[in-house]
Write a structure and sequence with these properties.
heterodimer, A: alpha+beta, Translation Initiation Factor IF3, 4-stranded mixed beta sheet, 2 helices, 4 strands, 29% helix, globular, B: mainly alpha, two-stranded antiparallel sheet, 18 helices, 2% strand, TusA-like (chain A), transferase activity (chain A), TusA-like_sf (chain A), Sulfurtransferase YedF (chain A)
Chain lengths: 75, 403
Amino acid sequence: MSADFTLDLRGESCPYPVIYTLDALKDMQKGQILHVVTDCPGSFRNVPEEVVSAGYKLAKEPEKAGQEYLFYIEA
Amino acid sequence: MKTLYNRVFGQYWNPVMTLVVAGIFSAAYFGLTGTVWAVTGEFTRLGGHVVEFFGGDVSGWAYFDLVHLEGSSFARSDGWIVWGMLIGALITVLLANNFKIRKPQQKRRYVQGLIGGAIAGFGARLAMGCNLAAFFTGVPQFSFHSWIFIVATGIGTFMGVKVAKTKWWKGKPKLMKGGPAPVPKREKRIVQPYVGGLIALLYAALIVWFFVTGRPLLGTAAIFGAIFGILIERGQICFTSAFRDLWLTGRTLMAKAIVIAMAVSSLLTILIIANTGMTPITQVASIGTFVGGFLFGLGIVLASSCETGMMYRLMEGQVLYLFVFAGNLIGVTALAFAWDHLGVYNVLVAGGEKLNLIPAMGPGWAIIATLTMLAGCYLFIVIYSKHKRGTLILPKGEKQIVS
């Protein structure tokens, strides 16, 4: 899946993956895709939950690759 | 077999169920040992050992008499709760192949962790407990100080969120245009689960050794410590996020889970007390409880974790939490020093008293009052979340909020 923007948040702990993701989405055009990579275990649950409740869509199911998590979110 | 393994270790457990189980085990631990699941008291003793190691003399510090600084951490049941939590969490992190050295890109996090950890450590000991003894295991002991602590921590975390949201505190990540997305490195051979299994076997042997050599209390603490560590890691239980996420975005998952689990734990504990005549663990309720709870709340948001959550995150390899742990130890030791040397006790705590709902109003009313208070908390969470999510500024107009 091709993304318009990529946020590499590996190493950052909660709640910053959520805050950064929502901040980035706010400045994007509707329909653009944001790709987020995290490795904070808490983010696997709270990033998708928070973007959906803020009104965005997951363009793809979250993916676990080793100790990292990949998200594709549609602004 | 493989699918069962995946169900247990491939995904995180439902936080409500996990916390309810933790609440049941903590009530059982009280029933078996007469003590509660707690960690920061032991942190204070560790802080005392550090001072002693560097040649300091703590024999005159009144706070260390209060928390019984005697012997080594490995000879205390409270010590084995802490070591057991660390080892239990490490075992499941490894079994889930989830260990990784994680270093924050924002270097300011280290300073924030140290400062937040110190404030949280200081506050927790001033209030006589962290999210456990003054909250999750304090409410089910019907100790009134935990009621004050909840309110104060709520206010403290609210202030913490205000700070954490500022630009200079949160920093700015690099937003890269387009792809290709960075390809995560995949491990060729998965070895972590084998290491985890080995540690589990060694730890089980240690527990057997405790029982065989006539130290059942240490063995029991070692078992329960590991269970608590496994539960908080597998459920990703985060007391900090329960408060913080409610203020930040109106997220309620963890907050509701904690309230439900405390209700279950309270019911079990009152049954145990009614049937055995055991004395509930009561701490002093004072101005210090409020000030301490406030500082604790502020500190845990700044540090991104409380003393409990810090433990499993450290085992996941999150380097930030080494700094939080160091901050916690500095904070608890500073409080132990300030307690008598700087008059903290006289100013903030001396006027307080130990107030427990059971002797004060009888067991029936104690449980009714506790459940009513918890129901009130639950209602507050629901209403605040509605208010918060309702006022979220939607970025692109027509989108619907799905909560």
